[in-house]
Amino acid sequence: MFSDLRRRQTLASFDYQWRALGQGQAMLSDDWMREHAEAVLADELLGIDRGWFAGRSALDAGCGGGRWTLGLLRLGCRVTAVDASAGAVAATAEEMRRLVPEVVAAGRLETRPADLLALPPDLAQRRFDLVFSFGVLHHTGDTRRALASVARLVAPDGVLFVYLYGARSVPASKRLALAVARSALAPLPFRMKERLLALAFPRRDTHQAFDLFSPLVNDRYRHETVEGWLRDLGFEDVTRTMEHTEVFLRASRPECSARPFRPPVSRPYWFERYRRPA
Fold first, then answer.
1. What number is the average pLDDT over the span 214-242?
2. Is there a domain that residue 206 lies in?
3. Contact call for residues 117 and 152 (beta carbons, < 8 A)
4. Which domain holds residue 49?
């Protein structure tokens, strides 16, 4: 019962976040992110030659505000963008109509709500050349099951990418403090919480502060754990695309059509331009 309440609160929190707090660092309101989304995707996160993407089917599994949907569309993919939040789906559709209207008109974008723990039956039957999930599965309340759910959607010669919060990124003592703070803030209406966080952290992006302090489900994992899950799911090649305490993993099978993969890029990574103020 308690886990269900935490999951419902987390879903509601993200729905509010995508409806009311769509602007922020590394979002589509950010000029740099908007201009470099496809380069970050292909060169840093995936390590795949840009020529591979044209005409490929891609699933953005947890599209949020649509930054990676934009990158995938600009790379030439046919994109299905899904999210458990209706606010996120609406925000992504609106942004794509604004930023790449010709792509939307050409029918290369499908947006729809979907719970990654219980996929709609028609979606569950589809297979994609690329399944991409960035910063989503660790908010579902059952990361391993959500990973298995989206992994089934990868075509035999396709690619899976996941980014998850890393257990080594935040000391256990700080994780406990964050959990206490989230629990204390949980009873507040989201609008009040937004204002309180803006006052408490005037130098920090409110979108990012809300993302950190509002949702109750924020699980963290070690690379080795997630790599093991992916191998259990039949992916023989599981690679860290970025050497970091956060979990950036690309998974594929021997017949993957995206080979040969590009070598990992060196630091500084794209997200390190957004240093958090003290």
1. 97
2. no
3. no
4. 23-167+219-273
260 in a domain, yes or no? yes
What are the tens digits of pLDDT across the range 148-193? 999 999 999 999 999 999 999 999 899 999 999 999 999 999 999 9
Residues in Cβ contact with 41 at an 8 Å cutoff, skipping those fewer than 6 apart: 68, 71, 72, 75, 132
Q: Could you tell me if 68 and 21 are in contact, meaning their C-beta atoms sit under 8 angstroms apart?
A: no
In-domain check, residue 176: no
DSSP code string of 4-57: HHHHHHHHHHHHHHHHH---STTSTTSHHHHHHHHHIIIIIII---GGG-TT-E
Q: How many domains does the chain contain in total?
A: 1
Q: Are 211 and 37 in contact (CB under 8 A)?
A: no
Q: What DSSP character marks residue 258?
A: T
CATH number of the domain that residue 76 is part of: 3.40.50.150
Cα–Cα distance measured from residue 266 to residue 272, given in angstroms and rounded to the nearest whole number? 12
Provide CB contacts within 8 A for 129, sequence distance 6+: 56, 57, 58, 77, 155, 157, 158, 159, 257
Q: Which residues pair with 58 in a beta bridge?
A: 79, 130
Write out pLDDT tens, residues 65-109: 999 999 999 999 999 999 999 999 999 999 999 999 999 999 999
pLDDT the model gives residue 278: 46
